[in-house]
TrEMBL record:
Keywords: Cell membrane, Membrane, Transmembrane, Transmembrane helix
Chain residue ranges for the region called Disordered: 274-402
Statement: the UniProt record of this protein carries the keyword rRNA-binding: no
Signal peptide start and end residues: none
Protein's name in the database: RsgI N-terminal anti-sigma domain-containing protein
Taxon lineage: Bacteria, Bacillati, Bacillota, Bacilli, Bacillales
Gene Ontology CC terms, in alphabetical order: plasma membrane
Span of domain RsgI N-terminal anti-sigma: 4-51
Classification via Pfam families: RsgI_M, RsgI_N
Native source organism of the sequence: Effusibacillus lacus
Subcellular location: Cell membrane
UniProt feature, compositional bias: Basic and acidic residues: 283-316, 343-396
Regions that span the bilayer: 50-70
Organism domain of life: Bacteria
Length: 402
């Protein structure tokens, strides 16, 4: 049986005077614990009405003012939100309803939604009446066309044990009936979404219904973007991406849980971020190795220049030492080569004292030894430089393979 709410204005013996929403005063049986300012439910069978704002009513109202009832509690303060109902045509909006399925709040979710509800008075109406008004206005403003796709979502707000499935079906039925009366053949689909999905939708700037559609599309690898859903109607997005999107629209209520799809999407995004970071690290490592190679090459070039200078100095300062044109020691088949020096006038190499020959021989041996040491030093330095270059090249090839 339908009940009416009222505020207790006066308690007298076995009866209490109650004022209803429409400013009528009713006398109801008093019950233990009743107090002025308390909100109560009144069954229709127990109502006895007084004329609105008659003398007694005015007297009671004055008494209530004197007792501070109006300061104690806002008159008929809206109850807690029991459910959220979102409707996507291209206008997207959300209705907050209480346990009586009356509209407490209307929130446009995009500019078209603001245009649709402008001038409509939906607060306080039943959800069926509000949906009827919305459908009529959407048709008048040209938002509803033949074969339009309309998506209804319902979310349990947890304030009462309201049957969300029944609420969703009730909204869809009201929408279909209104469209039928207007001669518009549109497709109306529905899906239940959790508070988690609703919050995620608000975070990315979509209605719960469009976000549910986005999750389903991502699961099927249909390239639908958040921006598309923000800026286009459900119908336009469905047409743009072909029959796969229409199949999603028709099977959303019986498909995989949206929470599971959300978890998969987050995991996919996390892997993409990690992959990007890994690629960045590999690029940094490769760049560092290239820089290291450049530095090593510069060092090797500098050493070669120093060796050239040293070779020239040795060629100029050592008597009898034959250096190559590049300043490196001369060689025969890779071995250092030295020429025995001769004194002035010793053209045949046989003249001069034996002691001078012995001295020249020792000097020649020392120069050969020094030349060999210099050659070995250059040989090992070149070998080490070549090994470093090969190691860097192998490392780059391995990174490219990964």
């Amino acid at each position: 049986m339908h009940e009416t709410k009222g505020i207790i204005m006066k308690v007298t013996g076995s009866h209490a005077i109650v004022m209803t929403k429409d400013r009528q005063f009713l006398r109801i049986p008093a019950q233990a614990g009743m107090r002025i300012g308390q909100e109560v439910d009144m069954p229709a069978s127990s109502k006895k009405r007084f004329a609105a704002w008659n003398g007694i009513g005015l007297l009671v109202a004055c008494l209530a003012l004197a007792l501070g009832v109006w300061q104690m509690k806002p008159l008929f303060e809206p109850g807690p939100v029991s459910a959220y109902v979102a409707i996507d045509i291209n206008p997207s909006l959300e209705l907050a309803v209480d346990k009586e399925k009356e509209v407490l709040q209307v929130v446009p979710l995009n500019p078209d939604g603001e245009a649709l509800v402008k001038g409509l008075h939906l607060k306080g109406k039943s959800i069926e009446s509000a949906v009827t008004d919305l459908a009529d206005e959407a048709a008048k403003q040209g938002f509803l066309k033949q074969d339009s796709e309309i998506l209804v979502t319902a979310t349990d707000a947890g304030a009462s044990r309201l049957n969300i499935e029944d609420l969703e079906q009730q909204v869809m039925t009201s929408m279909r009936q209104t469209l039928q009366q207007s001669g518009i053949a549109a497709n109306v689909g529905g899906v239940l979404v959790s508070q988690e999905i609703r919050q995620e939708a608000m975070t990315v700037g979509l209605s719960p219904g469009k976000y549910a559609l986005y999750l389903q599309a991502q699961a099927r690898e249909i390239p639908v973007t958040v921006e598309e859903l923000k800026n286009q109607s459900v119908s336009d997005v469905a047409k743009q991406h072909g029959k796969d999107m229409k199949e999603i629209m028709q099977s959303m209520s019986g498909s995989k849980k949206l929470e599971d799809l959300l978890a998969e999407l987050k995991e996919k995004h996390l892997k993409a971020i990690q992959q990007k970071q890994n690629n960045g690290n590999r690029q940094d490592n490769k760049k560092n190795r290239e820089n290291e190679k450049d530095e090593n090459k510069k060092d090797d070039d500098k050493k070669d220049e120093d060796k050239k200078d040293n070779g020239k100095d040795q060629s100029d300062s050592r008597p009898g030492w034959k250096g190559r044109e590049d300043g490196k020691p001369g060689s025969d088949n890779g071995r250092p080569r030295a020429v025995i020096p001769f004194k002035d006038g010793d053209i045949d190499g046989n003249s001069g004292k034996d002691s001078d020959k012995e001295e020249h021989k020792k000097k020649n041996e020392n120069e050969q030894k020094e030349g060999l040491e210099e050659w070995l030093k250059q040989f090992f330095e070149k070998r080490d430089s070549k090994h470093r270059q090969e190691e860097n090249k192998n490392q780059d090839d391995q990174d490219d393979d990964r």
